[in-house]
Amino acid sequence: MKTLRSVKGMHDILPVDMPRWHFVEATYRNLVERFGFSEIRTPILEPLDLFVRGIGETTDIVEKEMYAFTDKGGEHLGLRPEGTASAIRAFIQHNVGATEPRTKWYYLGPMFRRERPAKGRYRQFFQAGAEVIGVGEPAVDAEIIDMAVAFIVSLGIEDVVVKLNTLGDSETRPAYRSALKAYLEAYKEDLCTDCLRRLETNPLRVLDCKIPACGEIAAKAPSVHDFLSRDARAHFEDLCALLDHCKTPYDVAPQMVRGLDYYSRTIFEIHVNSHSLGAQSAVLGGGRYDGLVKQLGGRDTPAIGFSFGIERLLMMLPQGTAIDAAPLFFVAGVGDGGLTRALDIARQLREQGTRAEISFAGGSLRSQLKRAHRLGAQVTIIAGEEEFDRGAVAWRNMEDGMQEEILLGDLMARVEANQ
Ligand code: HAM
Q1: CA-to-CA dists, residue 37 to 23, 30, 32, 34, 233, angstroms
Q2: What's the pTM value of the predicted model, to 2 decimals?
């Protein structure tokens, strides 16, 4: 029989890798909670229309990469490819704006895009993100970029580059769109078939095309900076001044667009100079999406956020990042009644919040010590019959093999001191 394997581009995360995941996740939670963000969890499946309307019908994500299907009840559903659209759906559905006009949410979970799998690009990947809904001032753009940088730096990742741009506002867009279209019309012969279509439906998407020939044309396209409304320009300039004040380094990338249609004004990406990711070097992306709440049926509400792929960050973690796992105690019960002695001590340890393992099969001290080594225990507590009757156990340091006898009455205090 053919062995079943996980779906292409979707991976198991084995326990051996979990400490690194937990490290990134805990660092993120800890940081964003200090900035006043609360966690939201939304379903993995959503009405397909949420992503079509939210992310944009002509984006690659919706056009090519969605896991979309009709369920047995005839509903059109989609596996979420990102978290922003769902967060905004929830914000509107629960009328959060009425009680919490400045909403700060963060999230973490699996996302799905049917992309061509490559290093750092998967079909199921984990994203964590943060969204601020209800604040339009550039100060929040600066704070969110600062928070994103602080997070990545706190993981010990160096060589971080913030790429920053603006896409202008609703006043900027029509003029820029016409100018861009007029420019691209001249290259009709050279554009790929997708871009020929994009030229009619959404010319901005041509700037995002991954085909090199289209990239060359895009690089010389008119810049949105020449079409910014006064308001959009002031917003961008204020943001740059605030980032300068915070000494947050950034590079303005005038040709940068992002792959989702909901953006307006500020957009940014964080890249890390690294050999391990090559072309996939954006570890984090985000921006303002002031029109999305209204577009999805809510009140006109500004918003901004970012998200990052956890797998990509894990690839960037410096070698030897100290991931502290709580120390493990092994309890070896030897001789008659050894198993019950081990069970009792292990239970006490666990009640006190300590990680403890025992050998279910009992066996010789030698074989139990071998198992303790394999599990990576720092200490083995040996509960032999004779010592136990005297009210004592042996404390064995697994690193140097040193062993000493200690009184049962002192055991828990000693364990605590070794946490
Ligand atoms: P995005 O740029 O599409 O933005 O994705 C953000 C990050 O998710 C990327 O920088 C990358 O690290 C990771 N990522 C994306 N696709 C994959 C993949 N196939 N495999 C592995 N990692 C991937 C968004 O999703 C927006 N929702 C960001 C945002 C939040 N904008 C405003 N708020």
Answers
A1: 19, 10, 6, 7, 29
A2: 0.91
